[in-house]
Description:
The protein is an alpha+beta fold.
Amino acid sequence: xxxxxxxxxxxxxxxxxxxxxxxxxxxxxxxxxxxxxxxxxxxxxxxxxxxxxxxxxxxxxxxxxxxxxxxxxxxxxxxxxxxxxxxxxxxxxxxxxxxxxxxxxxxxxxxxxxxxxxxxxxxxxxxxxxxxxxxxxxxxxxxxxxxxxxxxxxxxxxxxxxxxxxxxxxxxxxxxxxxxxxxxxxxxxxxxxxxxxxxxxxxxxxxxxxxxxxxxxxxxxxxxxxxxxxxxxxxxxxxxxxxxxxxxxxxxxxxxxxxxxxxxxxxxxxxxxxxxxxxxxxxxxxxxxxxxxxxxxxxxxxxxxxxxxxxxxxxxxxxxxxxxxxxxxxxxxxxxxxxxxxxxxxxxxxxxxxxxxxxxxxxxxxxxxxxxxxxxxxxxxxxxxxxxxxxxxxxxxxxxxxxxxxxxxxxxxxxxxxxxxxxxxxxxxxxxxxxxxxxx
Length: 440
């Protein structure tokens, strides 16, 4: 089977949050076994789904020391299939146009594992001074759950690791942490009754408005909430809907309102108060680390909003600078929780992963820069990438570098996600050279 055919088949396996990674892990495991490598499956269940960490070594058994090459196998939610115009409205139909392959997980980051596998094949039959271990994890969209299981079950003996992430082949030595939060904002009893009666009254009328991200870096939910904040407080909120997951930046959001007034304890000022607290915290986050290079994504992302009979549910992520201490993080979360309590809303912290930082002057960094320079890649190091499994592994004493082919911002969590085939080939060469330098 050719490399591109393997890419097509892997993209065709749904490993989004609604399906789990077991099928993808088993497919890749079969390819690794065909290459003569030893495969270990760490099967788990997460939220009722079959998940799996794939652990691949040159030989069976846990060595005294190894070098880790990790990639997460799960993808974000694809959203509406109709927006995948490059894949015939099917995000799992890998489609090639010129030098670019389109499909969910092409850049973030399933195909990165195949690049590492191709590099590992080049070392077959050679005596290894330090063996490698290839790992495909689950749970990147759920608090790095797979990486946490690897550490807790003592499945690794690595002191150095390459974490696969679409960095456009830029070397990342420090990354943000992330807190996933959820706020439930209740309707008043009077609003609940009005909304219930509205649904069965033919003469009732509402107004709807759709919001789109204003620019490439825009967030449609933020645009919608800013608009809501300018409206009279007594209107009836019938529906707020936008986004597909807390991690994704929403491109569209929909508002439905009824222009009535006179409610006691209406929900609109509650939403406006929480939105104001979010924007204030975002500004403090930006000021906290002004000398750190900007992230590929905003510090705060309002990723999803939904409306039920009883409440408006807002879910998002708070990305934390690597320099933020646990104490500072706790203070920020308490501020958001206090703003929620003021309105009678419920604040929940769904998960928290601390940021990571590796020494810029380490031998590991210098060796990697040397290989990058030999191959004509940039050797500049960056201090602020997205949230990755490095945050989990670094806490257990593993020195982590984040690197990978593909563009993240505006691509990896969006419809028509793609990656250049030439970049995949260049990644194979890099992984081969770095394995030769560190393992032989």
